[in-house]
Input
Amino acid sequence: MTRLHGPAPEAPELFIPPAVPTDPGELLLFLRTQEEWFRAVFEGAAMGIGIVNMEGRFIEANAAFLRMVGYDLDEVREMPFTSLNHPDDNARNVPLFRQLVAGKLSHYQMEKRYRCKDGSFLPVRLTTSVVRDAAGQPRFCVAMVEDITERHRAEAERRELEERLRHSALHDPLTGLPNRVLLMERLAAAVERCDEEEGVACAVLFLDLDRFKVINDSLGHFVGDQLLCSVANRLRECVRGTDTVARFGGDEFVILLDGTDASQAVAVAGRIQRELAAPFDLDGYEAFTTASIGVALAERPDERPEHLLRNADMAMYRAKGAGMAQCAVFDRSMHAAALERLQLETDLRHALQRGELRLHYQPLVHLGTGRVAALEALARWEHPEQGMISPARFIPVAEDTGMILPLGSWVLAEAARQLAEWRAEIPEVDALEVSVNVSPKQLRDPGLVEEIRALLEEHALPPRCLKLELTESSMLDDPAASAALLHRLKGMEVELYLDDFGTGYSSLSYLHQLPLNAIKIDRSFIHGLEGSPSERQGNTEIVRTIVTLARSLEVPVVAEGVETPEQLAALRELGCDYGQGYLFSRPVESGAARDLLLADPRW
Ligand code: C2E
Ligand code: MG
Ligand code: MG
Output
């Protein structure tokens, strides 16, 4: 090896064992020196060293050893090594020692724990070897002891970290409940245990909180999170320890009931709904929530876990459709319905391109003059095989799939085009207005305002002739954003109707903040004007209240679904401004609507 710098290192001093002297005096001196030399090494060693005799009793121990175990040398002497061990470690230690004594081993190594004087346990690594005399007889054993506390702690920390990582990979950080991954693991295991013969089944409850978004948006995410945690706690209390409550995402929870049957599962769903019915105290707010629950049962071990979950989800949607706080059990017909819906989705995608959508128009009649004041545009789908499909069926599908945006754009464009055509053709309808239904998703589309502005420009329409009909729920989703958008529309002088009023979760104080131009009372109240005497009275009061409310907001009221002359009379009596319904006309196609405008009938 070449060195670049410095002097050449000194050669290390070689240890040359001195020759054993033969002179007795020198021999004595020699032995004493040797003895001192070994004692210095023994005492000064950082490693603990203990010497035990062949009976396994300590005869000597160095300072490091005594520091480890906390005893004095006097206390350790004569102590059998077994009494210094953790009792559980003797079963391994004693046989090894015996083999050493019997000459079957020259040494052994093991990890064990010492029981220290203060009662604590010290993890150590021990290497014991035997020392023999000149005749080969075993004389004593030397135990070299290394304190491995640090290594143990590092290992424990590593294990704990691993455990924490595993926990966080399998649990929801907010509620601490098992997450989707862990749920699927347990579900797969539970399904495998199902036994058709023995009647052992497992059930999945798919739970979705009703109107969680409203609470979250109105009271804030912090309160929303608190609600989710409280719901999680109540759910945990509703099931057995062997069941799994998992957070599936957002406000969805999945409960896996292991070893159950349909009636038990439904009973648990009922219990959950009762538990959730009690008010929640959220940071001083009293909040109420309900849940829609779908139940699916696996009875065969070959059932696919993801199918089971999908079935429960489907049943949950059925429950939601039936109103709030409902429970539905999956059956095969739901599967068929879901397939049919899937087909409808596919067909709807083509409907726009193939020109299968139509607009029908229904008049709004001014109750003072009895003349047509406006038309509502209502979408229709002429399905090539199924015939005319009601918007009540395809609008929700369009909303769920996002198709509502192109569909809504088409409706707006077609209504504007048709209105411009009528205005050009029939000069008397110069003041004619057309209203178009706008869905919640459209309201959240930042391009909506621009789209409407462009349409009005293209067809040279005064903004006041195009009205938008919105439902309360569409504004509840994001009240601040929709209020801002509505004000922008108002700025353009596009008028807004509140549709189906009374069916949503009317927040009356909130109505004042919206730039509304009319309120349409839902037809259920108008039908109620003719029910049993008590029904009639109740609905009359409701309509009267809505009319009064509208007066205070200085907007007119439209009654939807007017079917009979009696209803019309009652509405006139109550001071309702406009009416719409089969009594005047059903929604009709554009040609018939044009004829109606030309005829200018009076009611
Ligand atoms: P809506 O906006 O409340 O429309 C009024 C619904 O009541 C129409 O149903 C109409 O045909 C029906 N109707 C009118 N008069 C009477 C009556 O005297 N008695 C009864 N029983 N019903 C009457 P339609 O056309 O089936 O529409 C249902 C819903 O679908 C509409 O309710 C609206 O929310 C939605 N919709 C229709 N077209 C569109 C559209 O282009 N876009 C969006 N987003 N939604 C639409
Ligand atoms: Mg409407
Ligand atoms: Mg309506």
